[in-house]
Write a structure and sequence with these properties.
Length: 233
């Protein structure tokens, strides 16, 4: 069995792992990605980007399983390989910084999360066009950390930058826009600014109503959010 057929087998296990991950079968996803990695160890040179892909996918599964220290070590191995194999401002590096930031945020280590999210943002600003949706995601993630830290004015400016980009980059009733309106609305609610909160949360509800089926949890939750804020006014 030569390297080409070994690599196609590795790719197959990787794809099977992604499918299991998508349907929430994490232990099966993990064993598929690990099989893929074992084959790559035979077929590829040591710091090939293919290893980074495997470690990244394994990290993704561990993060969703709540096994944060394992997720972190997988993501860090992915990042080490990318630093050797890729140019310094490659978007894959940004994605790794983002992934590590997310794990730290899940662990409640907000200052570390912020450091990695800012590294992600720095690369995206250089590597992608100015109104790319990934840039909006970066600002959202930074906003979420500031929100978690109760630094509301910083959270608000990050959320607003994200929303500005999404308004340019996305169609008017895109669910990501609804999420951004929701982030800003909930933030205003925490700040006690209920009329502002209400106008943003109503926009969230209206977009979800247009873009999702009526029984979708996002539709019911957004309606509940609107009613809750109305009671506080």
């Amino acid at each position: 069995m030569g390297p080409p057929s070994q690599l196609s087998l590795a790719a197959s296990y990787n794809n099977i792992g992604l499918v299991y991950y998508t349907i929430g079968k994490y232990s099966k996803a993990l064993s598929s990605h690990e099989r893929s990695l074992e084959i790559k160890k035979i077929a590829l040179p040591p710091n090939h980007p293919g290893f980074a892909q495997s470690y990244n996918n394994i990290g993704l599964v561990y993060n969703n399983m709540g096994e944060y220290s394992k997720a972190l070590s997988s993501y860090e191995r992915s990042l080490e390989i990318q630093k050797i194999a890729l140019p310094p401002n490659h978007p894959d590096l940004a994605a790794s910084y983002n992934n590590i930031g997310e794990v730290y945020r899940n662990m409640g280590e907000y200052s570390k999360a912020l450091t990695y999210y800012e590294k992600d943002l720095k690369i995206i600003l250089k590597a992608l066009p100015p109104n790319h949706p990934d840039l909006a995601s970066s600002y959202t993630n930074i906003g979420l950390v500031y929100d978690n830290m109760s630094e509301y004015s910083k959270a608000l400016s990050s959320y607003e930058r994200s929303l500005e980009i999404q308004k340019i980059a996305l169609p008017p009733n895109h669910p990501d826009l609804a999420t951004s309106y929701g982030n800003i609305g909930m933030l205003y609610e925490r700040m006690g600014q209920y009329s502002k909160a209400l106008s943003f949360l109503e926009q969230t509800r209206d977009i979800f109503k247009k873009s999702l089926p009526p029984t979708h949890p996002h539709v019911t939750k957004s309606q509940t959010d609107v009613e809750r804020v109305k009671k506080k006014m």
